[in-house]
Amino acid sequence: MRDAGATELDVAARVVELVQEIAGPAAEAEVTVVRHDLALTRFANSFIHQNVAESGVTVRLRVHVDGRTAAGGGSLVGPDGLRALVGRTLAAARLCPPDPAWPGLTPPSSVHSNGLLDEATAYAEPAARADRVRAFVDAVGGLEAAGYCRTSYRSGAFANSLGQSAQGRTTEAAMDGIARAGGADGVARLCAGRLDALDGAALGTRAAAKARAAADPVELPPGRYEVVLEPAAVADLLQNLAWYGFNGKRHAERQSFALPGTAQFDPAVTLVDDPTYGGAMPYDLEGTPCRALTLVEAGTTRAVAHDRRSAAGAGTTSTGHGTPGGSTFGPIPRNVRLLGSTDPATGPAPTDGAVAGAVADADTAALVAPMARGLLVSDFWYTRVLDPLSLVVTGLTRNGVWLVEDGVPVRAVRNLRFTEAYPRALGPGAVLGLGRRPVRQPDRTDGGWWEGPSLRLASWNFTGGASG
Asked: What pTM, to 2 d.p., does this model score?
């Protein structure tokens, strides 16, 4: 594999030189250069209808000159393109208001490679993705199938005028597919650092079993129900908790529920944001080294994410969560894991075994079995935040809901609308069971992931049918 990182580091260093050449040695500058290769194989009506690939380089520059801050970006890395980027960013800085909250640049510090590069994934041929699509389609047994398989490779570098520099490379593979039986859908999706971790046949078998089990759904009255949420639905919880709760800017503005040091969650809940675990660069947009950050430990909120600006305002240090747009929206954890259960009473960690209708894995089966009456939920979608402070969210179920009685899914249920405060639903005493095997779900924007096991909760507020 050729060493693209050295070229990107040269580009980043050259941009820093140009800033100081044009604006003087007092000018502060930070630069990130990222090469991104993304390949996508999409299928619908059980055949591949699109295979696309793109490769591009993005250069992001932020400058602080005469007390004013501005940022710019571009994709031209030749001498003229880089000089033009520097020129327009410095021109923008002259028009910006003073920035008294400028936190300064990241000082020189060590950045360690995450070691998550897989060459076979970085340079995967279309045939490798097509093989997984074929396995998925074959496994659904004649049902209509649709979805995608993608591979992604990033290599990048960072440099600033204080002398901090860093490089990183990473790969990701993801598959997301549905099977349809008589208007009922079943879903299966997975994200991993390596393409060979995606088993199209296993995903197709799961999606088909759930689609067949979701046929002929019945109406169910609104109300509070005990639920088992599968990993796809759990991913939505994690994403909204991260964006709106564990966001240092929102926390400082008192728009977050998070109260570090307070037992806000059930003791079964431990949340860790860990970019080093897979799929992310080992440094953030500001060149701060990334590390694992425990957000919740055994039910107690421990931290929120910070970039340099939010950290300076809070009197602390950056946690390595500088992101594009962070000064507006705030620093966001985007690699959040809900750790699986380690309780010996739950038995050994499940392995993928035979699929039995709505209950598609042993982990979920162990949580469904003790339910006297409740709902098994595959997926959430179209979720929207109604109140950021308490994190009340409304949304819809999708891709299969089942009524469970005496530990057995007895009938499929039509999709339901819910309105629920996510922290309350995970609060002390609310978690009745937690699976042992977290399953990583792809971020729809390609660049993050959410990982958790199936989850059994005492109460979830369903407010009506999907059209309500």
From this structure: 0.92
